[in-house]
Amino acid sequence: MPKVSVDVKVLPNYINGEFIQGETSVPVINPANGEKIVDVPQSTRDDVEEAVKAAKEAQKKWALVPAPQRAEVLYRIGQLLKERKEEIARLLTLENGKVLEEARGEVQEGIDMAFYMAGEGRRMFGQTTHAELPNKFAMSVRAPVGVVGIITPWNFPIAIATWKAFPALVAGNAVVWKPATETPIMAYELVKICEEAGLPKGLLNVVYGSGSTVGEAMVRHPDIDVISFTGSNETGRRIAELCGSQLKKYSLELGGKNAVIVMDDADLDLAVEGIVWSAFGTSGQRCTACSRVIVHEAVKEELENRLIEEIKRLTIGNGLEEGIRVGPIINQAGIDKIKRYIEIGKDEGATLVIGGNQVHPKSLENGFYFEPTLFTDATIDMRIAQEEIFGPVLSLITVKDLDEAIEANNSVKYGLSSSIFTRDVNKVFRAQRDLDTGIVYVNAGTTGAEIHLPFGGTKGTGNGHRDSGIQALDVFTEWKAVYVDYSGKLQRAQIDVETQ
């Protein structure tokens, strides 16, 4: 296995185009083997202040650069990411643990987002429309919001950052970014690429540190105009409270409790493949992971047996090794949470049919691994069927028909992703209409969103904004209505129109 390493021992903050060491730091641990990779700063409110000051000053000039020219920088960023895809993917697996195949896919998301949002530099369309008075022109245009604060999670440490930073930059904003402490290396690598691509100083600033210090300072800062956050519902509520008290714009992408529906006419081979990928890819540590299978009673037993056999084939270990399909959990706290839910499921009366244990693969005894786990005979009111576990734990729920399946899917407080396997086109159209999630898949699992469509959900999954797609621009721009009256006289809308 090729050696993977970082070119510094302590990651520096990146403020106003300069790499700056913090005063204190904590270790970044490889979840595959428990070894320290690098140290990361625990920054202060003063560091945030410096980053915001730099961003605010740089944004004034950047907003005056024509959007097609801003886009040229993103094109260069995308090309550099493409050239270094393998190197970055290996570093991603090193700090995050996900298997290398998935890490490559995540870096590809960043590449795709760079090129897609660069294209918006020549679009970013507004509207023109007829005015109600003569010799008057009316239009709407997008304007940048100013300084954007982004707070990103450890499970997709580069993809989610690009979903937020790239549309913000092409729209004429500057960015202050707090990456997750568990996975800071991707931020270090990305800012180096942005610098090489020619992004002007001050437009992308990285401040490492805790949510309670750095995150809270960002949310409270009067010169950060919008906060874009992906993470837990608990933290999301806190951000909503703080932003609301300031009348500050905010975008929240929070949890999920996603389900695959398997009807009695489904292709079961395809369904099993989709379920296993959705439930156990990234060791279940995705907001879109499948953690519920809602199965028609006529095929429940066969589906369950097939899932058990497929789960037995999954290989667990270091994601950098060939043939590994399930990597580690991010840390021991994640393991402990999963263990608690295993006991909850047992106490609630669900049947544990496979998995349920922390494991220690040979030579990886200090890593954080958990067996792919399947509960059966779960009901929709059980906590394991309602609450986000964020691990490789799957629960089977039996239903009698499509109506009951849709009701079961919609019974949770989240609304991110859902899926249905069926050969009946009528069921497909009913499901895509009635499933109350922001993303619906047909004959596929609950994961696999593409960057040119809006990503996000309903209910407790967020506050209605979307990452990705052109809809992401709505978070990072304000609509400005412009009226040009060339009549040479004062014309009063809604008043003088009656006398024309």
Q: Brief overview, please?
A:
The protein is α/β, with parallel strands linked by helices and 500 residues long. It has helices at 45-62, 67-83, 85-96, 100-119, 159-170, 185-196, 211-220, 233-246, 268-280, 300-313, 332-348, 402-409, 425-434, 473-476; strands spanning 13-15, 18-20, 25-29, 36-41, 127-130, 136-144, 147-151, 174-178, 204-206, 226-230, 249-253, 258-262, 290-296, 351-354, 358-359, 369-370, 373-378, 393-399, 414-415, 417-421, 439-442, 458-459, 477-485.
Question: What attributes does this structure have?
Answer:
alpha/beta, Aldehyde Dehydrogenase, Chain A, domain 2, 2 domains, 23 strands, globular, seven-stranded mixed sheet, five-stranded parallel sheet, 14 helices
Note the gap between the termini.
79 Å
CATH topology of the largest domain: Aldehyde Dehydrogenase, Chain A, domain 1
CATH class of the largest domain: Alpha Beta
- What does the radius of gyration come to? 24 Å
Full CATH superfamily name of the largest domain: Aldehyde Dehydrogenase, Chain A, domain 1
Structural class: alpha/beta
Q: Give the helix proportion (percent range).
A: 25-40%
Which word captures the global form?
Answer: globular
What would you say the CATH architecture of the largest domain is? 3-Layer(aba) Sandwich
Task: Work out the number of β strands.
Answer: 23
Pick out the low-confidence regions. Answer: none
For the largest beta sheet, what order do the strands appear in spatially? 14-17-18-13-12-20-21
How confident overall, as mean pLDDT?
A: 97
Count of helix runs:
14
The largest β sheet comes out as:
7 strands, mixed
How many structural domains does the protein architecture include?
2
What percent strand? 15-25%
